[in-house]
Structures are given as C-alpha cells and as structure tokens.
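seq:
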Amino acid sequence: MKRFFDLIVSIPVFIVFLPLIAITALLVRIKLGSPIIFKQKRPGLHRIPFYMYKFRTMTDERDESNQLLSDHIRLTPFGKFLRKCSLDELPQLWNVIKGDISLVGPRPLLMEYLPLYNDEQVRRHLVKPGITGWAQVNGRNTISWEDKFRLDIWYVDHYSFWLDLKILVLTLLKVVKSEGISNSNHVTMPLFQGTAKKEEGSRG
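struct:
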C-alpha cells in the first residue's frame, strides 16, 4: 500500500511540477552551470545503494590544492533560495517513481556513515528512505544526530498510512515557514562522527 500511495501521489505531482522543474533547471544552468543535477550514491532499503538526485546548489570553487572550498563559501544566494523553498529536492520525485525511495521515510544519508552506526541506529534502513520523514518535521537540521536517529527509529517502529499523511502535511507547513533548513553552525548538518566515538571522546 505504501508503494501504491507513493506512485499515485508522486506521478501526478511530478507532472504538475514539470514546468517548475524545467524553469528551476534552466536557472541552475544559468547561475551555477553544469551539471544541473547533483547526483550522489546513498544507502537505501537494507543499505542497498542508489543514486539520489537533487538540483545543484553549490559552485565547484577549489583552493590551490584543488580541494573543494567549504560549503559556506560554495553555497550561493541562489542556492540558499533553492534550499529555503525546498526546490532543490524536486528531482527526488523521480527517485520515488523509480522506487529508490518513498515519499516518507528516514532521509538517506552518506554511504560513509554506515560503519559508524550502532546496532539501534542501523535499524533506520529497515524501511525505504524518504524525501521527508519524522525527523524532518521535528527539527530537521536543528537537532542533534542522536535525536535525529531516535526519531528515525521511532518512525520505523510506528509507521502507518495515517502517520505518513500527517508527516506530509507537517512537511508542507515546514516548507512554507522555511523552518529547520540549517544547523546554527553549518549549511545543513555537521558530519556525523559516530555516537560511540563521541561518547568515548567525552569520557577521555
């Protein structure tokens, strides 16, 4: 039923938003250049990797050593606007249609985080990741990693059709209010270092 719901919602929304997607793609090409789409490998259901799509929001500026500059420098005002309005997420509707992700589920994170999860945190991969999720409507990037994982696991244990509807409605309200987009000290979230390592460091 979850897959059926994903398709009957995402396909019409994708078709309706095609003009907006096309306009956004054109503006990204003009203001940020190519590639228009940011593609990155992320872990999906049961940690099986897939490629997630987003509109590009950063430049490719590099230092003298050919290393990318920090996110704060490369994120342009136009990129901030895309993130504020969640327009950069529109290509993920194609991920939903393909079956890589669901409309609702734990957000797909980086592949390099997989070895850092403890036994509880890794359970977030027992369901498909989503465009939005329980953690996104309860703080998004303003809460700690531990709280984010706790909310993800709560969703894994309680997800239902009605909970997904509630999360989608709350997500629309969050987008309108532009809440939770950035962490106070980072463009989105600081890199996850692993809960166990952090605890060991605090004891030391």
